[in-house]
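Write out a record, focusing on structure:
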Amino acid sequence: MVAEFLPKPTHNSGDSAAAPVILGLLPAALVDHIARVDSSILSTIPGEPGGSFPVAAEELKDILKEVDTHILSSPNDLPPVKTIAGGSVANTIRGLAAGFGISCGVIGACGDDEQGALFLKNMSLCGVNISRLRVKDEHTAQCICLVDPLGNRTMRPCLATAAKVQAGELKREDFKGSKWLLMRYSIYNLEVINAAIKMAKQEGVLISLDLASFEMVRKFRAPLLQLLESGNIDLCFANEDEAAELLSGEEAVRPEAAIDVLGKYCQWAVVTLGANGCIARHKKEVVKVPAVGKTNAVDATGAGDLFAGGFLYGLVKGLSLEECCIAGSCSGGSVIRSLGGEVSAENWQWMYKQMKTNGLSAPVVVQDL
């Protein structure tokens, strides 16, 4: 029997005596403005199509203006533009709380403004503990996510003037009692990342790192390698493009080669392969798992983030490496069925059905009526 999804999770979104099982590090919480656009707009904005790289405040304003002239009509009466709490880590944490019933929280900062209020409300309603999120008298970060007719996304976050948590504001107590800390690689947040890793490790917390984007890996590969070589990263997620950039300058890049390199540094390593599934490694075990379920991709935003959520759910529940990959694939497939990185109730039900079809039990999600 598949799980029942209802709109109000019971997890305490404020102070809670029990520490969240999984924490997400959000140095600068942000909101996503997701728009379905024609591909021609991508040649008018900074950076390469398909990636994610920060832009200045004025550049963000220019892109938002440009979006108005490139909006596409949406299928199935979907809104052409959607604004939600965003960012890779937020997508993963929200999915784990709302769809998998895992106790989750966030550490970081947001602004005391309209976007910050939207972020807090969205995450709270999904059952995420926000008691470790500092609210500052500054602006909340924003990101424009451009989705082309094929469902591919190009992201341009604006973080320069955003409210951010500083390394000195983190407390060891923030991490006490949790099992995992999720983070996204960013050269701009390296000081906070390193401080969080140090405190988390002191509390015996495992670290999961997402490689963020091929542009970030390409431009700041050396600090990333140093971070991996530290031995503090227990789990690393990369897509094919990010893996290729990480292995830049070496022999022809294959997913198997990338997983071997990441496996030198991390207990678990995963390279997602889009429609071809994923390849994963835990110590000496390597599995390659095809994508599950057939679905038309409306928007690829959050696919990797929700895959990570499903995979981590599997680890928390003690599933095998292959089963973790299957859970990740089911979860990643659920989010691409609609616009944005948040999974709808209907698409959670689709995921539960896929999990059951592929031999997994659906999560027990206890929620208020």
About this structure: The two ends are 19 Å apart (CA to CA). Confidence is low (pLDDT under 50) at residues 1-12. Residues 139 and 161 are 7 Å apart (CA to CA).
